Amino acid sequence: MNISIHGPGRAGGALAIAASDAGHVIVSVHGRSAEAVDRLSSVIDVQHGTPDLVIIAVADDAIDLVAADIAGHGPTFPTVHVSGAVSVRALDPISNTGVQVGSIHPLQTLPDPQRGAARLPGAWMAVTAREPLRTVLNDFAVSLRCRPFDLDDDVKPLYHAGATAAANYTLTTLDLALALFEAAGVPFEAAHPLVETIVANAFEMGPAEALTGPVARGDTETVARQIAAIREQIPQAEEVFVGLARATAAIAGTSAMIEEALR
Questions:
Q1: What is the pLDDT of residue 24?
Q2: 194 CB contacts (<8 Å, ≥6 apart)?
Q3: Which CATH class is domain 2-151?
Q4: Distance between CA atoms of 71 and 93, rounded to whole angstroms?
Q5: Using an 8 Å Cβ cutoff, are 57 and 11 in contact?
Q6: pLDDT exceeding 70 applies to what percent of the chain?
Q7: Whole-angstrom Cα distance, residue 30 to residue 3?
Q8: β-bridge mates for residue 161, sequence order
Q9: What is the C-alpha separation between 159 and 165, in angstroms, rounded?
Q10: By the 8 A CB rule, do 91 and 71 touch?
Q11: Of 32, 71, 150, 233, which cross-links 93 as Cys (Cβ 3.0–4.6 Å)?
């Protein structure tokens, strides 16, 4: 498949590299930064031609602007954006020309084009499109060794919130753990096996069933001692710790038992 990339950054670059490695042909790379376009073009073979698919991989608030620009320079070709949160209606300027539009969203962190491309295999990829573009995008995802799944356009913000919770809020919790371990003189690396096992348990059993620890047990005295120690030694961490403990208690059904310790 011939592919045109608009946005040579982390997502666009990762998809371009992965697509090229999978045997697709990148026919053009567009972007505001000539340096970024040249950098991506230097690591893939760009063979100029007519695209079968246009991929817009720019910031969410710029998608409609890029779509309008593309539509204004016609002709247009089937087009997708890669935002997990933005409606495909942002591509209306292109769909109004009579071609199909949709979106794909790799459910994976893409820190830079090269590492992002390497991390795509095995990742799930949300596909929002009607047929026949839906089948094209599913096949494209499979060619990248991703796992495509259908995502309704109306629930994209909710889905993206879930992705944010799974990724960013996990890091927020780990940053809290880092601060607590450092205050106790314990290397953060000591938590690595624990975290790996907890995550594995969550996907095997479900998060609620995988809960362990004093909040899940309703161990009020231990929770109170933890909070007292945090309040004394790193008070700036208390609010986050208490908030997470309260949320955990709600999942475990122990709120009534430990609420006094959280005050």
A1: 98
A2: none
A3: alpha beta
A4: 6
A5: yes
A6: 100
A7: 12
A8: none
A9: 10
A10: no
A11: 71
Q: Return the closest-CA partner of residue 166 out of 207, 210, 197.
A: 207
Domain ranges of the chain: 2-151, 158-262
- Are the beta carbons of 166 and 109 closer than 8 angstroms? no
108 close to 123: Cβ distance less than 8 angstroms: yes
> What is the SS3 assignment for 201?
helix
Longest dimension (CA), the chain: 69
| Least reliable range by pLDDT among 30-34, 77-81, 154-158 | 30-34
Distances in Å between the Cα of 108 and the Cα atoms of 52, 83, 87, 208, 223 are 25, 12, 19, 23, 34
| Mean pLDDT (whole number) for 76-87 | 97
Between CA 173 and CA 183 the distance in angstroms is: 16
CA-closest candidate to residue 14, choices 79, 106, 126, 87: 106
Q: Report pLDDT digits (tens) over 166-194.
A: 999 999 999 999 999 999 999 999 999 99
Cβ proximity of 146 and 106 under 8 Å: yes
Instruction: Enter the DSSP assignment of 76.
Output: -
User: What tokens does 140 get?
Assistant: 């494209």
Q: Does domain 158-262 have CATH number 1.10.1740.10?
A: no
Which residue shows structure tokens 């309040």? Answer: 231
Q: How far apart are CA 111 and CA 181, in angstroms?
A: 27
Phi, psi (degrees; rounded to nearest 5) at 116:
-60, -45
Q: Give the predicted TM-score (pTM) of the model.
A: 0.91
